[in-house]
């Protein structure tokens, strides 16, 4: 019986071809949104810088310490916003690539988790902008020495804001992470509940490291992290008992 070695590579090559197609779709989507936003890049930068400008003394302002900064910083922001807007499309492409390999019951679990992760990420970013950003900026402006006029570089401020938004967006995924760890049997609900005090201490430690060096920002991240962990435990208690223990061979979807 003859054997064609090229047939062994066909499924693998088809997966690579599909992955390339989905990656190209993601690039095109990000590029289209970026091109739509780039004409409003200055307005976008004004939007995220208004909380700081409102706190600065009348004679102070944002500055550009590099010749190209005043042009590149708003463009970079437009790119970050384009990524932010296309997160659902990016995850949908990843899901479309991964889902054929999942069982039906895994899909029924994964789809709500995927949607929840999107909502929680956007909620974390919104929380950072509307609740955390102004108190954090007030801390820095208030503690500036009397003979120092705060005039922040626009690149530094953009990096600060993007990091803050990303940290809160990722940390708000704690319920999803907690639920996934329980569903895949890496930990149990009882084990997590028994280690609650250590997890709370870890939340405050992480918040102290990743947030600006003021107590208000740390508390505004640590307290929601603790509450989100408790939410993850509640969801795990409700859902883990319905998780199948074995994977039947005939449960694959077409």
Automatic annotation (TrEMBL):
| Keyword Transmembrane listed | yes
Where exactly are the transmembrane stretches of this chain?
A: 23-45, 77-98, 110-137, 157-184, 196-213, 219-240
Where is it mainly found?
membrane
- Write the lineage as a comma-separated list: Bacteria, Pseudomonadati, Pseudomonadota, Gammaproteobacteria, Moraxellales
Keyword flag Transport: yes
What's the name of the protein?
A: Sec-independent protein translocase protein TatC
Fetch the InterPro entries from UniProt: Sec-indep_translocase_CS, TatC
> Which UniProt keywords are present, listed alphabetically?
Cell membrane, Membrane, Protein transport, Translocation, Transmembrane, Transmembrane helix, Transport
